[in-house]
Amino acid sequence: MSLTSQRSKVNSSKINEATSSWVYSFGNGKADGSAEMRNLLGGKGANLAEMCNLGLPVPPGFTVSTDVCTYYYSHDRVFPNDLSDQIDAQLILIEDSVGARFGDFNNPLLVSVRSGSRASMPGMMDTVLNLGLNDKTVEGLANKSGDSRFAYDSYRRFIQMFGDVVMGVDHYLFEESLESLKLGRGITLDTELSAEDLQHLVESYKNIIIAELDKPFPQDPKQQLWDAIAAVFGSWMNQRAITYRRLHEIPAGWGTAVNIQAMVFGNMGNDCATGVAFTRDPSTGENVFYGEYLCNAQGEDVVAGIRTPQHLTLAGREANGSKLPSMEEVMPDVFRQLADVRSMLEIHYKDMQDIEFTVQKGKLYMLQTRTGKRTAAAAVRIAVDMVDEGLIDQVDAINRVDPVQIEQLLHPRLDPNAIRNVLTRALPASPGAASGKIVFSADIAEDMSQKGEDVILVRIETSPEDIHGMHAARAILTTRGGMTSHAAVVARGMGRPCVAGAGEILINYSDEVMSIGGRNFSAGDLITIDGGKGEVIEGSVPTIEPEVSGGFARLMEWADKVRKMKVRANAETPADVMVAKEFGAEGIGLCRTEHMFFDPERIVAVRQMIMADDEAGRRDALHELLPFQRNDFQEIFRVMSGLPVTIRLLDPPLHEFLPHSDEEINEVAKASGKDPKKMRDVAARLHESNPMLGHRGCRLGISYPEIYEMQAKAIFEAAITVSSESGKSVIPEIMIPLAATKTELDILKNKIDSVAELVFASLGKKISYTVGTMIELPRAALRADELAEIADFFSFGTNDLTQTTFGISRDDAASFLPDYQHYGILEVDPFVTIDVEGVGELIKMAVERGRSSCSDIKLGICGEHGGDPASVHFCHRLGLDYVSCSPYRVPIARLAAAQASTVKDE
Amino acid sequence: MSLTSQRSKVNSSKINEATSSWVYSFGNGKADGSAEMRNLLGGKGANLAEMCNLGLPVPPGFTVSTDVCTYYYSHDRVFPNDLSDQIDAQLILIEDSVGARFGDFNNPLLVSVRSGSRASMPGMMDTVLNLGLNDKTVEGLANKSGDSRFAYDSYRRFIQMFGDVVMGVDHYLFEESLESLKLGRGITLDTELSAEDLQHLVESYKNIIIAELDKPFPQDPKQQLWDAIAAVFGSWMNQRAITYRRLHEIPAGWGTAVNIQAMVFGNMGNDCATGVAFTRDPSTGENVFYGEYLCNAQGEDVVAGIRTPQHLTLAGREANGSKLPSMEEVMPDVFRQLADVRSMLEIHYKDMQDIEFTVQKGKLYMLQTRTGKRTAAAAVRIAVDMVDEGLIDQVDAINRVDPVQIEQLLHPRLDPNAIRNVLTRALPASPGAASGKIVFSADIAEDMSQKGEDVILVRIETSPEDIHGMHAARAILTTRGGMTSHAAVVARGMGRPCVAGAGEILINYSDEVMSIGGRNFSAGDLITIDGGKGEVIEGSVPTIEPEVSGGFARLMEWADKVRKMKVRANAETPADVMVAKEFGAEGIGLCRTEHMFFDPERIVAVRQMIMADDEAGRRDALHELLPFQRNDFQEIFRVMSGLPVTIRLLDPPLHEFLPHSDEEINEVAKASGKDPKKMRDVAARLHESNPMLGHRGCRLGISYPEIYEMQAKAIFEAAITVSSESGKSVIPEIMIPLAATKTELDILKNKIDSVAELVFASLGKKISYTVGTMIELPRAALRADELAEIADFFSFGTNDLTQTTFGISRDDAASFLPDYQHYGILEVDPFVTIDVEGVGELIKMAVERGRSSCSDIKLGICGEHGGDPASVHFCHRLGLDYVSCSPYRVPIARLAAAQASTVKDE
């Protein structure tokens, strides 16, 4: 299936065979390619060429271009006719350069074969080293190097690598054979094997291949080379690679290049070495040379951990109190050369580089350079430093930091060096980490936290009535629900770490026990939640507190200068609103009024309202709620002092405010002096099969206009009070949720306007206000032109719009979304990043239609996507006025919005 | 709010005041207008003019056109300047014609003032009679008629009517005064009041008006006339009229006309009479003259039931065994004249007419003619007869019958003459009527029905596990859910009457009691369900069995000749499939496979499959289900013998197949030898907050491919078996539900194709088949171009598409849809008629995009809307290939599709 569709894409790319040069040479200070030719040569090949052009010492070689891969797949896996001649010519260039001949029994040239595509791509065949060895050339290598152990070790490594990745023989067969040899010889380390042992091993390996494949290990170096090239191309279409491409939207048509390069050896004596380095410290970003090396070793030894790698620099050695000498001390000349390379690469690439090198008999060879991965803190520091150093400008700096990464900077995280006993992994629903005692109810969480205990609230799922417990807890763990489940959304809003949808955990509330994989954990047991990784960890794990550097503040300042969109926050408690403002929110984009209904002081009146037999009864109860709501809004208006505040009128179905189980109902009824039977009847009557699609949003405002009237009254009275006391104008933006038709808005806006008139008359003061709507149903998007005739603003509720457009309940999606991502059906979780093709088209349509009837309508987004960088880019492209997200994501959105506005040609 | 928007529409209609003629005369055998001028003159005015043009005797008068109304509302309720002169001129024409003067003390002209808009519209001011009477002219009338009682009775009636509808005085005040007079005089009938009594009453009435309005009853006839005209126009904008227009999509800009006509009196002696008649029998359609009259009476007496109306014809009198003489006997000359009018009108209008007439002193006057309302049976008979009579052609006949009405012909209905004690009214979810004993569970329904009892299944809501009980019951009543709830959809499919969403009823399953408005009904109590009216009735009510005439078959034949779209049925049981075929279904558009999973023989295996720990366990259980499914499909293929059958793969979430309450779980677990705890755990794990948006549809096929593999296998094996035994080709259409992305289809189609290959290889025979998808999510509609690259057909699942586009759960909508219809937010229930503006746009988009990538893709609709005439018209306009609906709606869809294809200029 996928092959067919991918094939057709491959077919579509046209290649003119006659005029093609299929291979690109590099080495000896010059190259056919350059860093700009990444698409043709892949990342590795382009950078090897670039380093040659810079005059850096690179072992000679050549790159078989991605065009060959494309040709290969559009011609039933046949190579271009003239490729063979071109490769032969390239081999001669290498032979001439290094003074050895491919396949020569006495002086054999060995090469490495490495894949290298345009984008870094795990899952593909990576590397074959030492290619060119056979039963004859191994002798030549032994003689020439004077080290027969080295030669046979290279040969057995080659057979194993080639056998595994090129010929497809299970690597455990080779490992088994090696182990059994070591067992027979009574030794434990590979390095203890003698040249003879290795010679025997080579024979065993060759026998394994014959036994498995019924054909011998190829002795012809040319055959080895062609097989290796075909294997690299073949791995482009293996399942892991296909899945990876699908997940990362990499077209199959890009293809991979193959790099063939003369081998250099860091293990031919003490004047040899191999190492890896970063041009700056990738953890802190400090402008120091940072790396490790090993004398007389091969690259894989540094990685394998057989020997302890040594520091590159004296400063690094001293800082870490290491006794092993640094390269700076051992090989000062070569080190100076390497330090020069470091400077040259940074000046050239204008970014921190991750490099690999080998020293063969005192001569330095560069094997790779690429942009180095770094921590969030390092990314910020490097970007800011490089501006100060004049290497890059502010816009470059803004684009050097991944917005998602900076979330790390704002939350505590687990000490990376601490041991973690991970019990289960689930959705990383809200970042940060915390340890505490397990509690299974919101009330207990609150009690224990008031006694100074750190608690982790563990629930199957959470609902608005758990809010106080979520506030009290250090972190939240749920066994059901996705990235935008109630728990996830609220936890992000509060800045609490949260792992959601941990389906492997079974909770038994009555026994206060949860079990994971057969183990039981009781209330009071310690666990740790890593919300950034989605891990649930046994016991307590030390955490590192966040530290925000001055550089971060400067970077954000630069970002604020260039971005076009405003950034607001979704928040309703004064504490959250405060956090949001500190993080730079320029307004509240979504103040959810229902969270205010759950406060213990108020819930009694709320329930009284729900249980009332008629409108008069409801009005009595609402009258009691009015002062609370008014006070809520006053506090928010005061904190935001003049910044816009969008208040959403009551949204959830009323049954969410009632107790659920029979026991709870009895308890609540008793406590509030109500008839439990009646409460049960009301709860039964209000029960809904699909509450997400039920009697909620503005449907409540239509059925029970008195609720919205009370809320509007509270808003206007609060706004007038605060604007009178502060002298600043307060302009509330009243938002009507879940509209599907113009008439709903028509009716409710009139209602709000009438309340405004009454309040203005009774208080003797008028204020400005706007009335808008959420666009969170496909129908609202389709009829946006009509809605815009009434609404002063649209705020896209992308959570619900995603739920309805896809027909996926975010609370239930955890059961199949993993399958959907596994099979590549959904490349990204649509609740995390806006599905541009589906949901995005509706948003685009709504923007166009809304503007067609009201050209200056204010447009924003207040779904969880407001804090997702890819979604922020999408909003920028649509020209929205603002994005609104949870307070802790405000900096992310600010940076992402800045980056979006620096993108050209879109 | 609505006034503003309606005002703006009014504004948009441009009227050129200078050249307008505002009034149109009729009478004396000629008229300015005609029947074609309905838009300008309203229905009543146009037909009065037409009758004049036909030379029929119509009292002279004139029509104030709808343009005046439009002018009035676009000029702040001011009349055109020249209207007054034009009306004066018209009055003179009437005066000359009847020989009386408006306002003349001795010989006063009296007129009637009646509204008349383009479409018949209740809620508007209807009629003021006897206008022109005042304290002086009443004396003139008394003298001229020689009947002072008649004169004063006319005057007091006039004051009451005018006071009520024109001046806005509560009519009960007048009635109170009348009653108190009768009480004082010790009489009970109005007719016993003397002329003096009535004269007193006139004084009381005038005093009431002064007391209420602080101004006198207007004595100036001109003033009366202008007030009445203004009142007619005013009533165009009253709330009831506005709501009615919104509900029936009548633009406010149409306006109303006003008809002013000389009064004629049927109550001036025994040579006077008044009556109403239909040109054919409106109940049966028989071609006989059918009507009632009263001698010496006024129109309202016929209606008021004070005297028993007499038959028009001798035949009618004899057929009803009436002793009272017919008009044919009493006034043979006038009757003959009337019979001639009847013929003339039928030939002229080519349709059955509903007429009103008055005989004044031996002279016949026609007061109204309009198209007569009729029963479904009459509509069919009249249409077919008129074709035979050469009055109309077949296409006319097709358009003469309302498709919705013919549903009456296919179901039993309650005897219209029986007394109904209606307990509550709710949604008319499935037509037909039945009486039976209340039962509260499907199992008991089945038991009792096997013992020969008629039962009514009463449930809060139904689910697939109630199917056997629904089959067993005579009718179904639910307290929750809308027109497309499970109960409604299934009941319609089975042809069972159903009332759904009866929220006033509270059910207590454990006590087996339901209560309505404080009254309790227990299991075993008799109730009656009228599914066509949505009524729940106490006790048993006699029903009338349906009878389908030969005329109906001929009409349907004509319909089949002209329609463009095919009509299929949604059915899965062999019985339903048979019914569908008999009703003319040309294929199965939706065969739901899940209904087959609930059979007691199978549900054990289904639950075993759900409870299995791994794929192997699921495959074992599915292996047991395979023969059942295969047999199901064989039976359907046999019945449909070669007609297409679209089979939808499993759609509902798996938890629907598990028992729900703890007791049920224990019971089921015990019976099937399973661990109840494990079953509870599985049920808890599968529980969903919003099952409608959950792990269902093709998401099941992705997570558990073995389920769809088994179903595909059963389909292919069944198709090969039946095509081998019948020699006819069987082409199954396999439908994948709930797709949102191309990749889902890609993966599942491949799976189905692989199964096909395996079955074909093992049975040694190949058949053709197609694989398509439902379009039931907004995202699927938006990405239809991609889906059409894989799918052979699209079937629009408009139920789910409506749920997701509107964000409304059909199961929960009953709580607010009534409010929404009341406020005119939804003009029609979107689950009944496709919401063309929202859902319809998505369908249109999907049709266009689907065809853009696959021009010959087969397109159909299989939601409940497939049986709704308005929706069928919409599907026709989009050029769909077929509609599919429940079996009993197939004839409706056939007729509606035929009507759609006769519509021009769309």
Report on the structure:
The structure is a homodimer of 906-residue chains. Chain A contains 36 helices and 34 strands. With 906 residues, chain A is of the alpha/beta class. Chain A has an 8-stranded mixed β-sheet with strand order 15-25-24-17-18-19-20-16. An 8-stranded parallel β-barrel of chain A has the order 27-28-29-30-31-32-33-34, surrounded by 6 helices. Helix content of chain A is 46%, strand content 17%. The two termini of chain A are 33 Å apart. Chains A and B meet through helix 26, helix 27, helix 29, helix 30 and helix 32 of A and helix 26, helix 27, helix 29, helix 30 and helix 32 of B.
What is the typical, i.e. mean, pLDDT of chain A?
90
Characterize the largest beta sheet of chain A: strand count, sense, and whether it forms a barrel: 8 strands, mixed
Strand order of the largest sheet of chain A: 15-25-24-17-18-19-20-16
* Helix content class of chain A: 40-55%
Structural class of chain A: alpha/beta
The number of helical segments of chain A is 36
How many whole angstroms does the radius of gyration of chain A measure?
Answer: 33 Å
Cα-to-Cα separation, first versus last residue of chain A: 33 Å
β content of chain A, as a range? 15-25%
User: Assembly state here?
Assistant: homodimer
Total DSSP E strands of chain A: 34
How is this structure best summarized?
The structure is a homodimer of 906-residue chains. The first copy, chain A, has 906 residues and is α/β, with parallel strands linked by helices.
